């Protein structure tokens, strides 16, 4: 169902994308859940996909700032069934996070494989971000500050 919703939202012109207040965190230990949809990756639309992914992160950060949130967590948007190449998507996300004004206190990037974790921490260092590593049994978390 979520895939269908994101596919539908992606088909809309950018200016018509619906906005609504984010839901409460419910059973998660969080105040809000900010939903976003990244692009379904296609090599022939690479530039458009990069712009869409940039906007997905940027708009989520803007919403977080509007809500007074100081810490956010992101999964690797569009890198699963949407097939965005992980390294490229991670570079986009880290660049947006680095340029965020004002910066948040913490940004968590939740990853599920050791290879993705190593790629993300390497890219963070290349972008002069300081990765703080907080691995758990089920996920690898790279926190950039």
UniProtKB/TrEMBL annotation:
Database matches in Gene3D superfamilies: Leucine Aminopeptidase, subunit E, domain 1
Pfam families on file: Macro
UniProt keyword list: Signal
Domain Macro stretches: 1-128
Source domain of life: Eukaryota
Coiled coil: none
InterPro entries: Macro_dom, Macro_dom-like
Record carries keyword Iron-sulfur: no
Signal peptide: 1-18
Name of this protein: Macro domain-containing protein
Source organism per UniProt: Volvox reticuliferus
Lineage: Eukaryota, Viridiplantae, Chlorophyta, core chlorophytes, Chlorophyceae
């Amino acid at each position: 169902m979520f895939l269908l919703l994101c596919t539908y939202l992606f088909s809309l012109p950018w200016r018509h994308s619906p906005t609504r207040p984010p839901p409460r965190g419910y059973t998660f230990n969080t105040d809000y859940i900010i939903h976003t949809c990244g692009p379904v990756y296609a090599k022939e639309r690479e530039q458009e996909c990069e712009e869409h992914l940039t906007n997905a992160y940027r708009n989520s950060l803007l919403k977080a700032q509007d809500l007074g949130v100081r810490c956010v967590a992101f999964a690797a948007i569009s890198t699963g069934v949407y097939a965005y190449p992980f390294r490229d998507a991670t570079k986009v996300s880290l660049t947006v996070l680095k340029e965020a004004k004002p910066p948040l206190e913490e940004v968590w990037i939740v990853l599920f494989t050791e290879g993705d974790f190593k790629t993300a921490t390497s890219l963070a260092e290349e972008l002069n971000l300081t990765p703080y590593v907080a691995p758990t049994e089920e996920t690898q978390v790279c926190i950039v500050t």
